[in-house]
Write a structure and sequence with these properties.
It comes from Streptomyces tricolor. This protein has about 850 residues and is of the alpha+beta class. It is built from 34 helices and 25 strands. It is elongated and about 125 Å long.
């Protein structure tokens, strides 16, 4: 036996044992479920790596070509050589592109511990083979059927001999050799070509229909002559009554050796749909970022005194979402996005009261005090990490219940990864290039074929990608579809991108990741770091950089408006907060856009007077903040409303109206519109009503009067909006997609612990009494244990012990005793990689290690 064969791994555990620490770290980083909890040794790591749930999760993170490679190995002999695999992937004629990409795919499968063994003996992990190998219940994506051996397993020996003879082969003494001879015939290209040359034309048409799958067909009890010809020679084999299958070896001959009809070694390129100037893109994105801030502020201002009620099942009602959409002047899906974004950023939450309502949180007031760019960065960072998916609002859950905004059931753990990946693909395009959405979806389906199995683009991953593109535009991360400079910084990407060859195609040696988890083999890993989601600390730095780039692009707040004679005011840009707040009370917003138009009405002026302002205050305010003279109609409007404001006084009796002008009270009594208020005169200057003061105020205002409310002492009540805030709330935590990737510190500690545990489990030992069963701890008497320990202290040798801790958990360890005294042994513990003290009474036994 050659040295190479002797050193070849015999199991996945041995293959892992031969890896260096960097390779083990790559495995644990790409499959974090293997490290939760930390395995005790490499044998346990290999066992865990072969479990169905872990293998399925690893397969879901393979790109299409790596998955096609695994599928080819599942239909290849076990083990298979690299040349055999290459033949299945590239076919008899060969394919240079496939041949060039196959080493990367095999290296990826090895890194993921889905394949082990040398190039002469490639083995697919048994669980992966069971998941990918073809069966009647689970057809293979390759379209191949069972082998001749599998298809003839239940066939009578006589029938097998008939098939062998009819196929032109000599008869054999047993079924095994007959099946072997038939398999050899079907895998011999020249002999198979000669056999098929004599097939009827109709028989060849049947084979053509079955060759790319599905390989099963139906036949009658008395098949036609061309079908009988195929059945007699084993080119079709019966499986169940009335059903036949095309053997795998025959299909591979007809396919010229290819396992897949269309191998896809390279990812589809992300192509630009349009190209704009980078300056135009940044300016457009900045304008949309400002609109995003204004929209969120308007939403929270609308909910300032207490927002919509919380449904019993949680979330907003359909009616409240429609009302919010009207208030924001957007569609309902867009309104759901803004509501969910504010919730993800921790700006709104439920107040937790008995009559539960949504309201702004204390964090909203802190957010308002921040500079605009920092406020946007907080929203963008929350969006990037959120697992809640506004696009699902209005859909149905598994129990056919409507999914509501802010309600349960909107978390999709894949959302952050898809969102980040979509934006990362945009970084590979030239600056200013907007991608073709279809090419982005095709690329994502290539990178995660199992998670996006539907090719019609309606799978969850494709929908998440489409939502990511539209939401990035709404938020101002992109402008005109292209990634902005501050959007690029938000991802931690370089400030200026170098256009990749083919605008994102994965040429050989490209730094762009094309493998599982967006990672290349270890030697390419650093080049791909910018395309993987950042850690929390790195993301905070990237977000701050994005804010710095955005800040100069946002418009500077203004301290003035332009008053016009038609009782409107035009704000040519964003206003400073005190001015905007006061103008929001004094006037109504008529239109939005690049410039906001406010309209002054009697009701809006009365609103300002109700808030405690006087006519003189309003005149002074307008004169101070207008770049144009105060128009005479506006001055007359303010004076007219102020003259009538408070002339009528409403207080609580049930309610009453008093006025020094009895003529005005007579006018009210005579007005038909006052009938619903049920007024009657108590005195020449006082009317009583059978309604509450608030209803009376609204009724008189609807009639065109300007009454003022008064207190029990007769003072005018000033009505200001009282902000309603929830108790301190934390933003919703994203729902992770499995265990989080371990950091470098955890990886280093885990690998050290696994190595130490493996050393304790695999170090050769001298026999102790009777031979021990696998995993059984050594057993020695107390005297023997003490004597062996003392001898090891003198010689400096390491020993193997069985140890039971205070919790009753048993383990085996390799230790180097340093001192034995007082019923304790102090030793260097190779398993824990530190010096520890062990009570002698907890040591079950001790054995010397073998000399080699």
């Amino acid at each position: 036996m050659s040295p190479e064969a002797h050193s070849a791994p015999r199991s996945l555990a041995e293959a892992l044992r031969a890896r260096d620490d960097a390779s083990l770290a790559a495995l644990l980083r790409s499959r974090p479920d293997l490290i939760t909890p930390v395995p005790t040794d490499l044998t346990q790591l290999a066992t865990r790596a072969g479990t169905r749930a872990s293998v399925l999760r690893a397969l879901e993170r393979l790109d299409r070509f790596a998955l096609q490679t695994a599928e080819a190995l599942a239909v290849a002999p076990d083990p298979a050589s690299y040349d055999t695999l290459l033949g299945l992937m590239a076919g008899d004629a060969g394919d240079e592109t496939v041949a060039g990409a196959l080493p990367r795919a095999v290296a990826c499968l090895r890194e993921q511990a889905l394949v082990w063994g040398g190039d002469d003996r490639l083995r697919l992990v048994r669980t992966a083979r069971e998941l990918l190998a073809p069966s009647p219940q689970h057809p293979s994506p390759t379209g191949l059927g069972p082998t001749v051996q599998e298809a003839t397993s239940g066939m009578s020996p006589g029938r097998i001999q008939e098939i062998v003879t009819t196929a032109g082969l000599p008869s054999t003494h047993d079924s095994v050799s007959a099946v072997t001879a038939l398999t050899a015939l079907f895998t011999h290209r020249k002999k198979m070509a000669k056999l098929l040359a004599g097939a009827p034309e109709a028989a060849r048409e049947v084979l053509t229909r079955l060759v790319w799958g599905p390989p099963y067909g139906q036949v009658t009890a008395d098949p036609a002559a061309h079908l009988r010809w195929l059945l007699d020679r084993g080119l079709l084999l019966p499986t169940t009554p009335g059903t036949v299958v095309l053997p795998r070896e025959v299909a591979l001959h007809l396919r010229e050796g290819r396992a897949h009809r269309t191998p896809e070694p390279l990812p589809p390129a992300v192509t630009p749909a349009a190209t704009h100037s980078p300056q135009v893109v940044d300016a457009t994105a900045a304008g949309q970022a400002y609109t995003a801030l204004a929209t969120v502020e308007e939403l929270l201002k609308d909910w300032d005194e207490g927002g919509p009620a919380v449904l019993r099942a949680g979330g907003l009602s359909v009616r409240d979402l429609k009302r919010t959409a009207v208030a924001l002047d957007v569609s309902e899906p867009v309104a759901a996005f803004w509501v969910e974004l504010a919730y993800a950023a921790g700006l709104i939450a439920s107040d937790g009261e008995a009559d539960e309502r949504y309201a702004a949180t204390p964090a909203y007031d802190e957010w308002l005090e921040q500079p605009p760019a920092e406020r946007w960065a907080r929203l963008a960072q929350a969006w990037l990490a959120a697992t809640r998916t506004p696009g699902l609002v209005g859909g149905r859950d598994a129990k056919d219940r409507t999914l509501s905004a802010l309600g349960p059931g909107l978390d999709r753990s894949a959302a952050p990864e898809v969102r980040h990946r979509v934006l990362s693909l945009l970084t590979a395009l030239p600056q200013g290039a907007a991608p073709d959405a279809a090419s982005v979806l095709a690329r994502l389906r290539w990178e995660r074929p199992l998670r996006g199995a539907q090719r019609d683009g309606d799978d969850l991953r494709s929908r998440l990608a489409r939502w990511a593109l539209s939401e990035a535009e709404l938020l101002g991360v992109t402008g005109r579809g292209a990634l902005s400079a501050h959007g690029r910084a938000l991802l931690g990407a370089p400030a200026a991108a170098t256009p990749a060859a083919g605008s994102g195609s994965a040429a050989a040696g490209s730094a762009e990741p094309t493998g599982p988890g967006d990672k290349l083999p270890v030697h390419h890993h650093r080049a791909a770091d910018r395309l993987v989601p950042l850690a929390a600390a790195e993301q905070a730095v990237a977000t701050a950089a994005a804010a710095r780039l955005l800040a100069p692009l946002l418009p500077e707040p203004l301290d003035h408006v332009l008053l016009q004679a038609d009782l409107t005011a035009v704000a040519p840009g964003p206003l400073r907060r005190p001015l905007a707040d006061m103008l929001g009370v004094l006037a109504d917003v008529e239109s939005k856009g690049g410039a906001t138009v406010y309209r002054f009405t009697p009701a809006s002026v009365r609103r300002a007077l109700d808030a405690g302002r006087t006519a003189a205050d309003l005149h002074a305010f307008l004169a101070e903040h207008s770049r144009t003279p105060v128009p005479q109609p506006l001055a007359y409007l303010i004076d007219d409303v102020a003259r009538r404001h408070g002339h009528l006084r409403v207080g609580a009796a049930s309610a009453y109206v008093r006025c020094d002008d009895d003529t005005l009270l007579n006018e009210i009594l005579a007005d038909r519109r006052a009938a619903a208020l049920r007024l009657r005169r108590l005195a020449p200057t006082v009317l009583a009503a059978q309604t509450d003061p608030a209803t009376l105020l609204e009724g008189l205002r609807a009639m065109g009067y300007a009454p003022a409310a008064e207190s029990a002492e007769g003072d005018v009540l000033i009505t200001r909006a009282h902000a309603h805030r929830t108790p301190p709330r934390t933003a919703p935590e994203p729902v992770p997609d499995g265990p989080p990737p371990p950091d470098a510190t955890l990886l280093s500690a885990a690998i050290r612990a696994i190595r130490a545990g493996d050393l304790a489990a695999t170090t050769p030992r001298k026999p102790v009494g009777e031979p021990l069963a696998g995993g059984e701890l050594p057993r020695t008497s107390s005297a023997e244990t003490l004597a062996t320990m003392q001898a090891a202290v003198l010689t400096g040798d390491s020993v193997w012990i069985g140890y039971v801790n205070a919790d009753g958990a048993a383990s085996q360890r390799v230790i180097a005793p340093v001192r034995v005294e007082g019923g304790f042994v102090t030793a260097y513990d190779h398993t824990a990689d530190e010096v520890r003290t062990f009570p002698l009474h907890r040591i079950t036994g001790v054995a010397e290690l073998a000399d080699d």
